[in-house]
Amino acid sequence: MRKYANHILIFLIMPIAVLANDFEVEPLITVPGNNRNFSVASYGFWSWDYEQKNYICWENQVDSSFTIFVKQIWPLQDTTLIVYSSYEQNTNPVIAYDFYGGFRVVWQSFRNGKWRLLCREWKNEHFSEIAILTDTLSNSIQPTLSSSSLAWIQDGKLMCLRGMTDLWSIDSVQCSHPNMFWGDGWDPSIVYEKGDSAQKQIFYTRYIGQVRQNPPYWEIHQLTEDGHNLAPRFGVEYDIAYQTLVDNIWKANYYWNFRPDDQGRQTENRYCNFEHPVFFSYPIFTAKLTAFSSGYFLVVDSDSLGDRDVFLVDWDGNFIENISNSRGNDIKPIVVYCYTGDYYDKLTLIWEHYENGKSDIWWGLTDYYRIRGDVATNNLNIPNFVLHPNYPNPFNSSTIIRYELNQTAHVRVEIYNPGGQLIAQLVDQNQEKGTHAVRWNPANISSGLYFYILWVEGSQTIRKCLYVK
User: Is the pTM of this model over 0.85?
Assistant: First the structure.
């Protein structure tokens, strides 16, 4: 972590946003057969358009039939789409949005004694033809997908198809279980395991484009040095969590708003195993707008009650809430942020549920308030302004930021980078009630995520945009 003081600030904010609401838990996917190995396409905190949709894909097995399904889960729909089905094994599906308003699904498929990576894209309410990305692979492919790129393991090598066309062999020594950050654009980031089965370490790599006549390359950092470390994953935003074995107990390690030179923090639980951790943080700019603070928590599955359950835990590993609280085993949780377009969104936990020899997919939902105020809806300090998603987004030359004022007020519109540095001030003046718009034309900045903030009489709201050169 960057500074100990950041942890204290985060801990104070967290109860405002999360703990006042109970999660409503229910089965999500229960079609006949076993449902497992799911993946979710989500934009994170802010949608690129006015109606964000979240999708889940998963593997289903009924007897000797293997099917990859997709379903829209936010807003929830009953329709289930078949991506691919056969009597030979189809497994490990992953799903992610692309930059053009659709999504793609990639999975590994067994045919004629060989493993292949297959892909289908969803655009204009239709699936494309099936594309074979690569074949003649070993069983342990472990694909992972971002908005523009695909990574997998090939005979212990970490491979990446950047932009779905540019093939790279990144690391060639005992690599396993890669996980990509969903929103890195054309410069992907990957966390992964490396080493033999008894001494795995966590590594991080990111693509560095051509700089000052130097050719592109992959920058690699080793995040751990000893112990046994597994299951690295990015959170909803740019956070990393993984599990580490200490005195025969699995603990959760995490990095908040990760940078390669950060020092991670380890939970302090002593009596039970925390596995498959995922980190959640909600960025909130501090008053001086020089850095991020955050409401946050960890999600893990734990054996503290005998069977495994999904828990929220704080930064020291103290239990906050048993979310799944079921008679079966609940494992491999993820966190999904569902944008509603209102003054609160939906925070969703999804996991695999095993009971009576059957596997299904369950979820829990709660309201999550994006502005700082009372958590009760009837006491919420609703601001007299609305900040809309910019358009287009992603963009490569300019974008329009539109907002509405319910009264005459002094307004500032500012652009910040992920480190909290001011990039541009677009508006700083009194404005009349009504709808306003301002164009941002970036200059001399790199591709990536940026944040735009609307200040109205001391109150603020924030959204993010993706600049792609």
Answer: no
Residue for token pair 């949608």: 47
Distance CA 346, CA 336 (A): 8
CATH of domain 383-467: 2.60.40.1930
Comparing CA positions, the residue from 370, 378, 396 lying closest to residue 448 is 396
Q: Which CATH number fits domain 4-369: 2.130.10.10, 3.40.50.880, 1.10.10.10, 2.60.120.1440?
A: 2.130.10.10
Longest dimension (CA), the chain: 69
b/e per residue, 270-292, with b = 16+ CB within 10 A?
eebbbbbbbbbbbbbbeeebebb
Q: Is 222 exposed, middle or buried (0-12, 13-18, 19+ CB in 10 A)?
A: exposed
CA atoms within 13 A on the CB side of 188: 25
Pairwise CA distance, residues 72 & 333, whole Å = 18
Kindly report, residue by residue over 17-56, the tens digit of the pLDDT: 344 347 889 999 999 999 999 999 987 654 444 467 899 9
Beta-carbon contacts of 153 under 8 Å, excluding residues fewer than 6 positions away, are 140, 141, 142, 159, 175, 176, 177, 178
Q: Strand 307-313 relative to strand 175-180: parallel, antiparallel, unpaired?
A: unpaired
